[in-house]
Every structure is written in C-alpha cells, then in structure tokens.
Amino acid sequence: MAYHHGNLRQALVDAAVTLARSGGPDAVVLRAATREAGVTPNAAYRHFADRDDLLGAVCQEAMEQLASRMQASLAEIDDDGSPLAAWARLRATGRAYVEFALAEPGLFRTAFTSLAEAHSGLPPGEGRIRMQPFEILAACLDGLVASGGLPPERRAMAETAAWAAVHGISELLLYGPLRQLGPEERERAIDKVLDTVAFGL
Amino acid sequence: MAYHHGNLRQALVDAAVTLARSGGPDAVVLRAATREAGVTPNAAYRHFADRDDLLGAVCQEAMEQLASRMQASLAEIDDDGSPLAAWARLRATGRAYVEFALAEPGLFRTAFTSLAEAHSGLPPGEGRIRMQPFEILAACLDGLVASGGLPPERRAMAETAAWAAVHGISELLLYGPLRQLGPEERERAIDKVLDTVAFGL
DNA sequence: AGCTGATGTAGACAGTGTCTACATGACAAC
DNA sequence: GTTGTCATGTAGACACTGTCTACATCAGCT
Q1: CB of B4 under 7 A from strand D?
Q2: Does residue B176 belong to the interface with chain A, where contact is any CB pair within 8 Å?
Q3: Chain B contact present for A164, CB below 8 A
Q4: Which H/E stretch holds residue B86?
Q5: What would the pLDDT profile of A79-113 be if each residue is shown by its tens digit?
Q6: What is the distance between the alpha carbons of residues A191 and B132, in angstroms, rounded to a whole number?
Q7: Does B95 contact strand D, using a CB cutoff of 7 Å?
Q8: Cβ proximity of B135 and B54 under 8 Å
Q9: Dihedral angle at the C-alpha atoms of A31, A103, B194, B107, nearest 10 degrees?
C-alpha cells in the first residue's frame, strides 16, 4: 500500500473536484491533484489520457451533484397527480438548479465545460457526459402533461425553454449584470424567471 | 518606428481578440499576442497590469460587438410606435443575441468572463465593463410599455427574465445538451424560447 | 520461482505568466 | 543643439504547468 495507492483514480477525481469547487475549471490543475493525492504528476496518466480527461470526470461528477440536488428538492413535494403538484415540482427543480449554481459556482461552471469532444472520435452521443438534469426536467414536464396541467400541444421543446431560463438566470447572477444583486433582489429575480416560464409555457 | 511600436496597446487587444474568437478566453495567451504584435512578452506590461487585464479588454470589446449586432438588427425594424413593432423589436434583439453567440462562440464566452474584479479594489460598479446589451434590452422593454404592448405592472424585472432566456438558450446550444441540434431544430428551439418569453412576460 | 502487466517514479522539455534590471528613443528645457 | 527625463521596449531569469520517454516496483497467475 506504499507504492500502489489502491484507488488513485478516485482520489484524483476527488482532489480535482475540490479544486473545481473553489476556482472553476481553470483551477483544476493536474499536478495539484496528484500532489494532493501524494503521488507523482505522471501517475495521473495511468488513469486519465490527459488533463482534459480528468476535467471531464469532474464535469461528470458536477453534473451528478446537480441532478442529485434537483431530485432531492423533488422528493420534498408529494406528487398527488394534480396539476398544482406538477407545477410545484417543475418549479422546485428550477429553484434547485439555480440554488446549486449559486451555492457551487465553481462546480456549476465546470459542469458546462465540455469542449473536449470535438476531437474525441466517438460517435457523437456515446461515451458522452449524461445530462441527467435535462432528463429530470423532461420527466417533470411529462408529469405536467399527464396531470392535465399543460396541454400536450405545448409540450414540444418545453424543456428547452424551461432549462434555458433557469440556466440563463444562474449564469447572469454569477457572471452577468445581476452579479451584485442583494439576496432579496436576487430572490425576486429568480421568482420572476420562474413565473415567466410557468406563464409562458 | 522600429523600437516604438506606435500603437501597441491596440495591436495587443486586436491580437487577443483574434485569439479569443477561435478558442475562447483560455486561448488568449499573453505571449502569443505579443508575438503577433512583433514585440517582446514583457512589452505588454507597459499597457496591461497582467494577463487578466488584457483579457478584460477583450471582454469589453466582445461585449461591444454583441451590443452592436443587437443594435444593427434593431435598425432594420422601423418603429412606428405600435405594440406590434415594439414586440418585433424585442424579438429582434433576442435573435441577434443568440445569433451572435452561435456565430462567435469564442467571443461570446469571453464576454462573460469577468472574474477579474473580486480583487480590483474599485467601488463595485465603477470602472467595470459596461453591459450595453442589458441597456439595449431595457430600452426595448421601455418602448414596449410606452407602446401599450406591455402593462406597466409587468415591467419590473422583465429584462432579467428576457435576458436569462436568450442567454440560457445560447449557452445550451453552445455547450449544453442542445449542442448537436441540426440547424432547423436549432431554429425551432430559439423560436420556442422567444415565444415563451413573449407569452410569459 | 519467475514472468507479465498494471501502476507509480525519475528526469526532461517546451511553453506560460511575471519579476528585476537595463536599453532606447521622443520630447521638453536650457 | 545639447541634455535630461520619462514612457516604452528588451534581456534574462524564475517558478509553474502539461506531457513525453525511460525505468522501477509490485500483484497475481502459471
């Protein structure tokens, strides 16, 4: 257990996630991760093709954490099949999305850093990072239609519009002109976005 | 004119913008810019505090290009003061925003890379990059209210919701799950977002 | 007991941002 | 017109990064 780490890959991912949490994608530097794991820089190359590959693993992890938050917030709302509950569920996922972005800006940014596929050679769609948040959202919208809360003819592309709104407000609050809003204004901004989506869908 | 470049600062910004166009913020490397300008790396430090400062200039430039596209698209619609015209104007700015993002992904990403202020020491709001797109959008919404197309009580935070939507769809199309959409589906996605905003505001 | 393959190490290289010290030259003052 | 001053650019160095090639170590099968 001296020479062989035992579970280096996971240790590296953990270290890289910590780096990403407090500094975004640019902060995930390969050598720092290996240092944290108490190992030589090159050891990382036994588990990752290159730094982008490591970053991809962090990206994956970040996406999963986001999905997990969304699902947790969903679990707090009992689904009685009514349209109101369905709307509440949709709204809850949206809120959870934005709140994750605000609570973990570094991970959030890292989750959407997937430039590393243009030259991955894979058939596009395979081996790729799963967008679980997207699937959760789609399920909510399906539930909304099933509950009668949304006419089926409005279902098409609804996840696109909904996700665009929550993703956009997250980004704007983090890096855009809404950066310096106070907590209460921030809250109103989020509500306005969620209202607009609910009203506009 | 041999030793003194004459207009090095602008030359560096131009080179940096070119780098950002084809590679995003990470591609704007100080030494590459000075190489392009035919000058020593350290010469850059006579005009910029550090690399982040140079990146800030690129960011500014990108934001201005975006604003200019929005305004150009606005100029194509004659404003007769009617609600319809006002809605068309709002929609045009939104389209222009997304189209700029798709046409210039590197610059678009760079425009929203403003981490360099947490420790700038300036009074927050001063010396900062102007968010002209935000102002253009706000003006459109004011025009919408003035034309009677939007009840004044819905005006509050409207630019937040509208911008969040267009920003979000841009980002999703570039880096999110909508990355591999074909041109026609992409078009429908954009329309859906714009419809949702128009309907939801 | 020994081979083999997975895992980690050693050392090197090019490239980066940035520091300190020095060179150059445009321009104003005498 | 000489001279001094200051903005501008250069020279060289340093620490740090990602990544390459070659070598060391160990686990487990034969």
Answers
A1: yes
A2: yes
A3: yes
A4: helix B83-103
A5: 898 999 999 999 999 999 999 999 999 999 999 98
A6: 24
A7: no
A8: no
A9: -30
Query: pLDDT at residue A182 above 90?
Result: yes
How buried is B18 (Cβ within 10 angstroms: 0-12 exposed, 13-18 middle, 19+ buried)?
A: middle
Contacts of B161 in chain A (CB under 8 A): 165, 169, 192-193, 195-196
How many distinct helices (H) and strands (E) make up chain B? 8, 0
- The whole-angstrom distance between residue A197's C-alpha and the CA centroid of its chain comes to 19
pLDDT tens, position by position, A45-77: 999 999 999 999 999 999 999 999 999 999 999
Structure token pair of residue B196: 């949702």
Q: Compare CB distances from B114 to A156, A160, A175 and report the shortest one's residue.
A: A175
- Nearest CA-CA distance, residue B169 and chain A, Å: 5
* Interface contact A85, partner B, CB < 8 A: no
The predicted model scores a pTM of 0.91
Contact list, B175 vs chain A (CB under 8 Å): 112-115
Counting every residue written for chain B, the total comes to 201
Q: Are A167 and B189 a contacting pair, CB within 8 Å?
A: no
One-character DSSP codes across B13-44? HHHHHHHHHTT-GGG--HHHHHHHTTS-GGGG
Nucleotides of C under 7 A from a protein CB: 6-12, 15-21, 24-26
Q: Is B41's CB less than 7 Å from nucleic acid strand C? A: yes
Residue-wise DSSP of A41-87: GGGGGGT-SSHHHHHHHHHHHHHHHHHHHHHHHHHTS---S-HHHHH
